[in-house]
Amino acid sequence: MDTGYVTLSRQSGLMREMQIVANNVANAATTGYRQEGLIFSEHVAALNGQPALSMSGATAHNTSMLQGALGETGGRLDLAIEGAGFFLLDTPQGDRLTRAGSFTTNAEGELVNPDGLRVLDAGGAPIFVPPDATDLSVAADGTMSAGGRPLAQIGLYLPVEPMAMIREGGVLFRSEAGVEPSEAGRIVQGFLENSNVNAIGQVARMIEVQRAYELGQSFLDSENERLREAMKTLIK
Asked: Which of 33, 44, 78, 189 is most buried by a 10 A CB count?
C-alpha cells in the first residue's frame, strides 16, 4: 500500500502540471501572458503509524518573467514594456499588475484595458486622455503628451515580493506585499508584448507528462491486480 500512496501523490502532481501546461499552450498567443510552471517538492509523512514515506508535493507555481517578443501594431494606445515592470490597473478587488498593454479610452476619457479596468499613473491615479488629442505620444518613461504638452505619466511598477505574486484572470497578478515604482523598464508605443510561452517546449513537456502519468497508472493497475490475487490466495 505504501507504494500506492507514493504513486498517487505523483499522479496528482502530474495531473496539475498537465492542466498548467495545457493552459500555457492555450495562451501562447495571448498578449502579455507569462508562462507558468509547477514546482515539485518532497513531502515526508507518516501514514497509519508506519515509518514516514517520501511523497511528491506539487503546490507551488513558478511564473516566467522572460521578456516576450514585441510586435508592432501602430496603435497609439498600444503599449509594450521593454525590461522589468508592470502596468498597474484599478480593479474592484484592488490594484493588479499586468504586462498586457492593449489600451483604449472609456466614455469618461480614462485610459482603460479591454475589460474597462483603469490604468494608473506613476502616482496611482487614473489617466485622462483628451478626446481631441490626435497627436498623442508616449515617451519611454511613460510620459504621455499631446501637442507637446505633458498630460500624465503612465506608471511602471514592480511587486515588492516577486515570488509571492498570485496570478488572476490569465494576465493579471496580485501582489499582497504591495508594489513599488520600477525604473528598470521602458515603455514602447505602438507595440504589444507577445506571450512568452515557448509553445514547442510546452507541447514537448505535455507529451512527457502524459507518458509519465500513463506509466504511473500502469503501475497502479499492476499493484491492484497483485493485491487482488493475494486476497484470493488468502481466501482459499
From this structure: 33
